Amino acid sequence: MSDQEILHPEDDEPMDTGNETESEEPDQSATESAGQVPEERDESPEAIIADLREKMQELESENSELKNQYLRKQADFENFRKRMNREKQEFAQFSNQQLLLDLVSVIDDFERAIKSADDSRDYDTFHDGVVMIEKQLTGMLQRKWGLTRYDSAGEAFDPQRHEAVAAQEVADDGDPVVLEEYQKGYTLSERVIRPAKVKVSTKREEQVEGE
Length: 211
Description:
Helix content: 40-55%
Number of strands: 6
Strand order of the largest sheet: 1-4-5
CATH class of the largest domain: Mainly Beta
Structural class: alpha+beta
Oligomer: single chain
Shape: elongated
CATH superfamily of the largest domain: Head domain of nucleotide exchange factor GrpE
CATH topology of the largest domain: Nucleotide Exchange Factor Grpe, Chain A, domain 2
Largest sheet: 3 strands, antiparallel
Number of domains: 3
Radius of gyration: 54 Å
């Protein structure tokens, strides 16, 4: 054998340096310190019942609050409805206030005319005063309120503007015509609110039979 050292088989094995990595296991203390430890939940029947009762109380409280809100809204709506009805009644009651004030002024004129006639006993003066008041009244109603009085005598008969209360046969074979006006008609803003009462012309019977 040579002078070289003879290596024994056990010399080939790696030497233990003490730096081998130990098996990794979760550090329970570190996890607990980080607050990541899951909280154990009590799943006992008593705990479940207690949790359900708590949720039920929350729902009952929420339902009670919603009910109170509904009742308040309902009360507000009822008060609003009553207020609107009251305002509607007041509007209907006082909507003609200005018109009535205008008519009161005409009544004052009539009173002055009557008093003047009582003092003077002058029929012509009284008549002229009444005619003047009548013109002032119709002019005021037309100017301020759109109420217009129209004449019908001599016009073609129009069922929308005329109400025939009498008829008279004529020789003319034309369309019916208003022969006489018994009561004048009125329009409000060009809408007929009272048709005139009139007498209209009609064709003679022999003319109708001949046709």
